[in-house]
Amino acid sequence: MTHASRKAGVATAQPVPRWAVVAAWATVWCTIPSALWRIAAGFGADVGFTGVLGEAYRGPDFLLYVWMLTAVSQAAALLTLGLVRPWGERVPSWVPRLGGRSIPPPAVITPALLGALAVTALCMMVALAPNGPLDNPDFPHGTAGMIMNLCYAPLLAWGPLVIAVTIAYARRRGIRTSTANRTSPATQS
């Protein structure tokens, strides 16, 4: 039996909780403010960098870096949608040789969890590291610093959201978490 969503032709093997769909889309939206901020910086907008960083964060090399980082981060965020869409369970039919084949859950769950943990660790390290990048005197301060922080703050939710959506995917695909396998004290004899 398949679960049909509100859109015709879209089905997953088991119903996807509404909160998981919202959380998956939230991962995409979490990355957009920082992407827009980076693109503005890449095109030469004064985002508040001064000194050595102000000089380094200019020119075609920086613009290429910005576009690559933005493309990779947006692609990673968009892949989270596969955890709540049919193409995260079965290879789309238009893919040569593989189309229509079921995707083994560990092939989805493992990279999703590793990516989520990496993003969480990186964001926490940057945000909380004493003498880290945010303490650099060449980083934006004042209004420019506040704008940068507001653009990057949503990234702190990206990893935890992916972890939650991945757990929902694993449960939906029949993978039990360690807490689900435990026997409750009431059922033990």
TrEMBL record:
Key words, A-Z: Membrane, Transmembrane, Transmembrane helix
Entry keyword Transmembrane helix: yes
TM region positions: 62-84, 105-127, 147-170
Superkingdom of the source species: Bacteria
Protein name: Uncharacterized protein
